[in-house]
């Protein structure tokens, strides 16, 4: 038996609210409504769900979804061992049994035949059929399903079906405003306000280039990386090139443009 304890978040994660997302999520949890967290990479979705699991005192089971993932990876499978075959619950089944919050990260990466296994858990049935085992799991009253979703990355062939999307309430996430993002960087890295503000301004420049040569702007996560290097004594320009520019683009012209933006601040 898996103990719920190991999935509990013991220390309060640092999460700086951006709007009323904490209250909305609490209400959704009270209704056991499945929730979708939408937003670009590195804007705080994972941190938010860790914070909410801590606040609600629920275990959190996270699954990183990918296109090779099968329904068995979520639900469970029979394993062979010396004594014969043994059933092993997958993370979704474990979460449903112990009353955890199950966070399916990047769910759109999973194939649609995998995604549909969550359907009976997300409506009034709150059940999970383990077909191979011949068991119908009734979700624990505290169980909740949460997925993350990165709008814009997927093409039409790779999107969630409406019948999946419409089983969730959704919260929009984005990079925080200047004041909040500066605060986050200071807290996460220990750099001073002046440095943090410059990092945020560089990010704003780059975010304006989204769709004009950049697929995605500089995330809050990358700003935190930059701050961490600077706090370790790395010269700011080198730190920014390594964390804010090189990861973002392979295009030499775009790299020069971003390097120039860095040079105007540091
Ligand atoms: N509101 C916030 N409060 C505290 N930290 C934040 C906040 N927003 C962003 N961060 C910082 O940004 C980092 C990246 O956030 P996180 O890992 O939650 O991104 P994500 O949205 O889950 O990205 P991905 O889609 O790539 O998984 C965090 O480690 C944290 O340092
Ligand atoms: Mg994440």
TrEMBL record:
The keyword ATP-binding applies. Residues 181-264 form the CbbQ/NirQ/NorQ C-terminal domain. Belongs to the CbbQ/NirQ/NorQ/GpvN family. It comes from the Bacteria. The keyword Methyltransferase does not apply. It holds the Pfam family CbbQ_C. This is Protein CbbQ. Keywords: ATP-binding, Nucleotide-binding. Residues 34-168 form the ATPase dynein-related AAA domain. The gene is cbbQ.
């Amino acid at each position: 038996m898996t103990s719920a304890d190991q999935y509990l978040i013991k220390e309060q994660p640092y999460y700086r609210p951006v709007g009323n997302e904490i209250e909305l999520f609490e209400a959704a949890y009270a209704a056991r409504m499945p929730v979708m967290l939408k937003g670009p990479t590195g804007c705080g979705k994972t941190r938010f769900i860790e914070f909410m699991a801590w606040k609600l005192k629920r275990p959190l089971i996270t699954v990183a979804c990918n296109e090779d993932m099968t329904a068995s990876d979520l639900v469970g499978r029979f394993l062979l061992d010396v004594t014969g075959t043994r059933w092993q619950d997958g993370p979704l089944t474990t979460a449903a049994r112990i009353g955890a919050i199950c966070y399916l990260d990047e769910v759109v990466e999973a194939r649609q035949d995998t995604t549909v296994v969550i359907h009976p858990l997300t409506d009034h049935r709150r059940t999970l059929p383990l077909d191979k085992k011949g068991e119908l799991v009734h979700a624990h009253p505290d169980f909740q399903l949460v997925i993350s979703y990165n709008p814009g990355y997927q093409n039409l062939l790779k999107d969630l079906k409406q019948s999946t999307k419409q089983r969730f309430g959704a919260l929009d996430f984005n990079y925080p405003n200047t004041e909040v993002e500066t605060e986050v960087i200071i807290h996460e890295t220990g750099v001073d306000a002046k440095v943090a503000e410059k990092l945020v301004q560089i990010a704003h420049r780059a975010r304006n280039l989204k769709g004009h040569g950049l697929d995605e702007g500089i995330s809050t996560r990358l700003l935190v990386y930059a701050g961490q290097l600077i706090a370790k004594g790395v010269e700011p320009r080198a730190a920014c090139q390594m964390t804010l520019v090189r990861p973002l683009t392979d295009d030499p012209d775009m790299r020069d443009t971003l390097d120039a933006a860095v040079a105007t601040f540091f």
